[in-house]
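Appendix B. One record, verbatim.
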Amino acid sequence: MNFTEHIPILVIALPLFAAFLTPLMGKISRKAPRYFATAVFVIVAFLVVLLANMVYSRGTEPIIYTLGSQNDTIFRIVLEIDAFSIFMALIMAIVSLAVSIYSWAFVDKYSGQDKFYTLLLLVAVGSYGMVLTGDMFNLFVFFEISSIALCGLVAFRTERGESFEAAFKYMAYSTISGLLLLFAVGIFYSQYGVLNIAKIAEGVGSGPFNELNKIALGLLVTVFALKAGSVPFHMTTPDAYSEAPGGVAALYVAASQAGLYALFRTCFTIYRPVITTETIGWVVIILGVLSMFVGVTMALVQKDIKRLMAYHAISQTGYMLLGVGVGIAVLGNPAALDAYGKMAMEGGIFHIINHAMYKGLLFLTAAAIFYRVGTRNLNEMRGLAHTMKFTTIFFMIGALSIAGIPPMNGFSSKLMIYESVYQFSPILSAIAMLVSVLTLASFVKVFYSAFMGPKNEKVDAKEVPMSMLVGMAILTGVIIVFSLFPGLVVDTIIKPAVEALLHGWPIAGGM
C-alpha cells in the first residue's frame, strides 16, 4: 500500500479519530489532552505539507481520492484537491497548530480541557472537510461539524452568561444556514441525480439557467457569506469572536474562511458556465465594500478590544471579496481578465492567508492581555509595554500588517488589490484605501490605550506563559516570511490557487 495515496483522507480522518480519543486522554492526566491534540495537529500539518507538494507537482490537474464502492455513483465520498483547496488547508494547518499550543496555558485554569481540545479538533475536521471535499452533501456535513464545534467553543466559559448568549445566536444562524445549504443540495440532486460538484457543474452548464438553479445560487451565496461573516450577514460574528475563549477566535478566523472558499468555488466551479459573470461579480463586490466600510466604522467606536478586532475581521473579509469579485466580474472579458482581473484575484486570495495570520495573531495578543489584565476594556488598560514586551512586539507586527504599512505582508496583498481594482473602478480602489487609513487609526488607538503610558500598578501584567508566546511566535514568523518574500509566496501558492479556480474541476471518477 502506498501511504501517500491516502494522505487526503488522513488529513480529515486523523483529527476526527483523535477527537474521540481525546476524552480518554483526560482519564490519564489533566494535561494529557493538550499534548495529544497538539501532537495530532503537528502530524496533520506535516501531512498537509506533503499533500501540497503532491498537488503543486501535478500542475493544474487535481488529486481525486474516492472512498467507497466504485459502483456507487451517489453516496461514495470523493475528495477533489487542487491548488486552491490545498492553499486553504495550509492556512488551517498553521493556525490550528498555533492555537493548540497557545491554549495550553490559557485554558489551564478551566476544567474540561479534554472537551476543549475535542472541539478544537472537530473545528479542524470541519474546515479541512469543507475545502477538500468534492461533493455537495459532504460539504454540508463538514459545514455542520465546523458550526457545531465552534458553537461549543464559544460557550466554553460556562461562568459567563454572555458566552451562552453568543453561542445561542451563532447556533441559531448556523442552523438556519445549514438548512438552506441542505435545501440547495436537494435542488441539485432533484435535477441531476448526483452530488459530485463537478458533475453538478456539468448539469448546470448543459441546460438553460432555470429558476431552480437561480434559487440554489442565491441560497449558497447567502449561506457562505454568512459563514465568512460578510455584511449584511455578520450578525453573530462580533459576539462569537468576542466570547470565544483564548486562541479560539484565531481559529474562528481560519474556519470562517472556509466559507469564502465555498463561495468562490460555487461561483467559479458550479455556476461559471451559465451566470452573467458581471452581475454575480458585482454582488460579491458590493458584499465586499459593505463589509469593509461597516466593519471598520463599527470598530472605531469600540472599547472592548476583542469586539474591536471582531469588526476588523469583518472589514478585512471585504478586501478578499472585493478582489475576487472584480475577477468574477471580468470573466467574460478575456482582455480585462489578463490585464487586471487575475491580479485582483491574486490580491484577494493572498489577502486570505495574510488575514488569517495577522488577524489570528492580533486575537492571540488580545487574549494575552485579557489573561493578565482581566479586562477587555481599553479604558482600563495602560502601560502594558513595560511588562509585556514580547506581546507588545507581536501586537505591533500584527497591527502594522493589518493596516497595510510597508513592507508588511498586509501591504503586499492590499497593493495588488488597489492597483488592479483601480483599473476596474477608481472609486472602489479609493474606498479600499480609505478603509486602510481608518484601520490604522483604530489600531493606533488600541496601541496607545493598552501599551503606552505609565505602568499600571493596579494589575500584575507580567508577560504571558511560554506556550502562549510560542503560539503567537508561529504566526509572527509566517508574517515576517511573507513580508520579506511576497513575490515568492505569490508565485508559489497564490498564482496556482487562482489558476485552479479559473480552470475548475474535472468530473471525478465518472460521477
